[in-house]
Design brief:
Shape: elongated
Low-confidence stretches: none
Order of helices and strands: EHEHEHEHHEHEEHHEH
Radius of gyration: 23 Å
Strand order of the largest sheet: 2-1-3-4
Oligomer: single chain
Helix content: 40-55%
Structural class: alpha/beta
Largest sheet: 4 strands, parallel
C-alpha cells in the first residue's frame, strides 16, 4: 500500500500540466484541506502510462484533473475512471467543445501547443529577462522601455508581481519608493496607463517586515519594521501616486495572480 498524504490530486497532461495545476491550485484555495499532495504526470502520450497513473490514484483514493489533447487518451482516461471508480475532471475539454460547436471549427488536437516556441513564447522569454535585469530599480532608464511600471514600498511583492507579469509577456520594471529618495524623473514623462502604484494595509506590512527580520536574524525592533516608519512610507507612496495620477492597487491579502489580473484588465481598457 502506498503511504500518502490525507488528500491526493493528480495532474495528468500530454504537455507539462501547467494549465490544469493552475486550476487545481485556484480551487484548493477555497477549501481547508491541509496535507493535500498535488502531483503532476507530464507528457503522458500512451494508454499504458495513463493506466499506471490511474491505478496509483485509485490506490491513494485521489482524483485527477487532466488536460489531454488527443481524443484516444481522453477516451482512455474516462474508461479507466469508470473501471477504477476514480473521479476525473476534464479541465480543457468542455471549453474546446464549446469553441468547436459555437464557431464550427475543429481543434488541432496536438499536445503542448500552449508552450510551443512561437512569437509569444519568445516575447515571454524577453520579458522575463527584462524583469530580472531591471528588478528593484537597478537602472531607471528601463522605465522608458517598460510596458508596466510598478511602484511601492519595500516588501510589498513588487518583484514576484513583476515576474508573474513578465511570464504573461509584459516587460515589467519595479521601483521602490523611499521617503529619503527622490523618484526618478522618468516617471513624470508621458507614461499614462503604464504606471501602477501598490499599497497595503500597514499592520499587514508590519507582519511581513517583522518576519523578514526574523529570517535574516536581525532584531525585531529595527526602524524598518516599526509601525511609525511603515505609515510614513505608505503616506509618502500615496503622495507620489497622487502626483503621477496612476491607478493604485491594494495588495493586502491578494494573491499575485489576482493583482496581476487587475493590472492586465486596466491595460486593456
Amino acid at each position: 500500500m502506498i503511504q500518502s498524504s490525507s488528500h491526493f490530486i493528480a495532474i495528468c497532461s500530454d504537455s507539462i500540466g501547467e494549465t490544469a495545476e493552475a486550476v487545481v491550485q485556484a480551487t484548493m484555495r477555497q477549501f481547508d484541506l491541509p496535507n493535500t499532495e498535488i502531483k503532476r504526470y507530464m507528457n503522458v502520450r500512451d494508454e499504458e502510462e495513463l493506466r499506471q497513473m490511474m491505478e496509483e490514484v485509485a490506490e491513494r483514493g485521489g482524483l485527477v484533473a487532466y488536460t489531454l489533447a488527443l481524443p484516444e487518451l481522453r477516451e482512455a482516461i474516462r474508461e479507466e475512471a469508470v473501471r477504477l471508480n476514480v473521479r476525473v475532471v476534464d479541465v480543457m475539454g468542455p471549453m474546446m467543445q464549446a469553441v468547436a460547436d459555437t464557431f464550427n471549427n475543429d481543434p488541432f488536437e496536438k499536445p503542448g501547443l500552449l508552450h510551443r516556441m512561437d512569437e509569444p513564447y519568445f516575447k515571454r522569454v524577453e520579458a522575463m529577462d527584462f524583469a530580472v535585469q531591471y528588478d528593484d530599480g537597478k537602472d531607471v532608464s528601463a522605465i522608458l522601455k517598460a510596458d508596466i511600471i510598478l511602484l511601492g514600498v519595500s516588501r510589498i511583492s513588487k518583484t514576484p508581481l513583476s515576474m508573474f507579469l513578465a511570464h504573461k509577456g509584459y516587460k515589467t520594471v519595479n521601483y521602490p519608493l523611499v521617503p529619503e529618495l527622490t523618484p526618478p524623473a522618468q516617471l513624470y514623462e508621458k507614461l499614462e496607463g503604464k504606471i501602477f502604484g501598490l499599497t497595503i494595509n500597514a499592520e499587514h506590512l508590519l507582519k511581513i517586515r517583522s518576519e523578514r527580520l526574523k529570517v535574516m536574524g536581525l532584531p525585531n525592533n529595527a526602524q524598518y519594521a516599526s509601525m511609525e516608519r511603515i505609515q510614513e512610507e505608505l503616506a509618502y507612496a500615496n503622495r507620489i501616486f497622487g502626483e503621477l495620477g496612476c491607478p493604485v492597487m491594494d495588495v493586502t491579502d491578494k494573491a499575485i495572480e489576482e493583482t496581476a489580473g487587475l493590472i492586465q484588465n486596466d491595460l486593456l481598457r
